[in-house]
């Protein structure tokens, strides 16, 4: 494969500890699937033999990373959207057997092929916005075969599309109806049957759990985490979304890659994340859709220099959002992140939340060549605009997924 040399670009490399790390009049050389060299357009004159792509001043960022999604599921929950508008809360709907369980019924009823077909428009929307890595969770099967079915769909999406898919096992997402009143027995099933079976099929990159009054307790999560750790799998957790259960402190104490949601995390507890390099994954889509008013402890996260990631949380209930660009805007507007923090949240910090920051998430020599060419010159425009997709070209692992339409010349 010939090398590709991008010239006359504005690079938002997202390297270093803060900001965009912008380089003007820049050039970037891709060989095979990696970034081989970065420098100025002037210095690049001496490089021979590469296919030159003149970016005419356009912005290049790392490929975007959606580090928290429930993208594979059956059916929809538009009816619950209406119920919530009439005053029902997310918790009330869940307690009455709706919520996650209504998606469990639809997901169990769907074949693998049907789930795949339903996931396609969602994933294609994310791909069109320059997403090159996505995490997809199970959690609507809630038995061994249905959880495996969901993870197989996630795996297939990664084979069908030029995209890295990270598969997260979320068997402990809700209590399935057949275990009603027997949560500890279900956790035993998760630990002894479901998780080991999914892992044995190579379908698990990380293990997640929903710690909440309508989910599972910290003690139950500890049992799942002990098994996951024994299998060598990294940990993640949905915590402090609706109430403070102490889940984030426990998960960080076990070196979880990330704690996600965290609206109800106490500022005093944020230091626990710093001690363990745990990423705070903020999900403004769920905050918006559930009309939450409790903000995550952003100032404390900044003070303790906790990496903040943001993600769509794409799911049929709390966040039917399939646009990572919209999430950039929501993170700034609702959570008051700066546009640079928001962009770090879908690039380098999202890579950290998946344990992939050595491979992707920034434009640095040696990393996988995952990048997006945008028809803009200032990175803040990505978060500022709503409903405009300025993605002009996408390269994933050194291959053009969407070739740059203009300005390409050899
Ligand atoms: O991240 N909080 C739990 N899980 C999902 C919602 C799943 C659903 O409502 O279907 C979330 O918000
Ligand atoms: Fe989620």
Structural account:
With 410 residues, the chain is α/β, with parallel strands linked by helices. It has two domains: 4-62 and 363-402, Urease, subunit C, domain 1, CATH 2.30.40; 64-353, TIM Barrel (Alpha-Beta Barrel). Helices cover 36% and strands 21% of the residues. The chain is built from 16 helices and 16 strands. The chain has helices spanning 41-44, 78-85, 90-95, 100-109, 112-128, 144-160, 183-200, 218-230, 247-253, 271-275, 284-289, 298-303, 324-335, 339-345, 348-353, 380-384; strands at 4-12, 22-31, 34-40, 51-54, 59-62, 64-66, 131-137, 164-172, 206-209, 236-239, 258-261, 279-282, 308-310, 371-374, 391-396, 399-402. Strands 1, 2, 3, 4, 5, 14, 15 and 16 form an eight-stranded mixed β-sheet that branches. A four-stranded parallel β-sheet has the order 6-7-8-9. Strands 10-11-12-13 form a four-stranded parallel β-sheet. The radius of gyration is 21 Å and the shape is globular. The two termini are 14 Å apart. N-(iminomethyl)-L-glutamic acid binds next to helix 4.
Write a concise synopsis of the structure shown:
By secondary structure, this protein is α/β, with parallel strands linked by helices.
Note the topology.
Blueprint (H helix, E strand, L loop, with lengths): L3 E9 L9 E10 L2 E7 H4 L6 E4 L4 E4 L1 E3 L11 H8 L4 H6 L4 H10 L2 H17 L2 E7 L6 H17 L3 E9 L10 H18 L5 E4 L8 H13 L5 E4 L7 H7 L4 E4 L9 H5 L3 E4 L1 H6 L8 H6 L4 E3 L13 H12 L3 H7 L2 H6 L17 E4 L5 H5 L6 E6 L2 E4 L8
Parallel strand pairs: 1-4, 1-5, 6-7, 7-8, 8-9, 10-11, 11-12, 12-13
Antiparallel strand pairs: 1-2, 2-3, 5-14, 14-15, 15-16
Fe (iii) ion (FE) binds next to loops.
């Amino acid at each position: 494969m010939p090398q590709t040399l991008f010239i006359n670009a504005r690079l938002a490399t997202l390297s270093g500890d803060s900001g965009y790390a912008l380089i003007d009049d820049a050039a970037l050389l891709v060989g095979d699937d990696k970034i081989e060299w970065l420098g100025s357009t002037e210095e690049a004159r001496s490089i021979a033999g590469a296919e030159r792509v003149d970016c005419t001043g356009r912005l290049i960022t790392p490929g975007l990373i959606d580090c928290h999604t429930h993208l594979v599921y059956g059916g929809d929950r538009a009816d619950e959207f209406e119920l919530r508008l009439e005053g029902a809360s997310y918790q009330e709907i869940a307690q009455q057997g709706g919520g996650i369980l209504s998606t469990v019924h639809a997901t169990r009823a769907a074949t693998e092929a049907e789930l795949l077909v339903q996931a396609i428009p969602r994933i294609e929307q994310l791909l069109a916005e320059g997403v090159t890595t996505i995490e997809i969770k199970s959690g609507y099967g809630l038995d061994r075969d249905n959880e495996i079915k969901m993870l197989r769909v996630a795996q297939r999406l990664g084979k069908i599309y030029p995209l890295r898919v990270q598969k997260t096992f979320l068997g402990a997402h809700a209590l399935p109806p057949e275990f009603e009143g027997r949560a500890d027995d279900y956790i035993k099933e998760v630990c002894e049957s479901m998780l080991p079976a999914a892992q044995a099929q190579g379908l698990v990159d990380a293990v997640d759990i929903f710690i909440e009054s309508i989910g599972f307790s910290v003690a139950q999560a500890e049992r799942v985490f002990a098994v996951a750790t024994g299998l060598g799998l990294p940990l993640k957790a949905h915590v402090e979304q609706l109430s403070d259960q102490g889940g984030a402190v426990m998960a960080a104490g076990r070196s979880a890659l990330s704690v996600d949601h965290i609206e109800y995390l106490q500022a005093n507890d944020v230091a626990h994340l710093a001690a363990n390099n745990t990423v705070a994954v903020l999900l403004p889509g769920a905050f918006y859709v559930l009309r939450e008013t409790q903000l995550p402890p952003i100032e404390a996260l900044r003070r303790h220099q906790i990496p903040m990631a943001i993600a769509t949380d794409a799911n049929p209930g709390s966040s039917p959002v399939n646009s990572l660009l919209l999430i950039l805007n929501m993170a700034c507007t609702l959570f008051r992140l700066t546009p640079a923090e928001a962009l770090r949240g879908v690039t380098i910090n999202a890579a950290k939340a998946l344990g992939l920051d050595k491979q992707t998430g920034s434009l640095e020599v040696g990393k996988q060549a995952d990048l997006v060419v945008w028809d803009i010159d200032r990175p803040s425009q990505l978060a500022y605009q709503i409903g405009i997709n300025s993605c002009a070209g996408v390269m994933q692992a050194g291959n053009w997924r969407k070739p740059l339409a203009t300005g390409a010349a050899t």
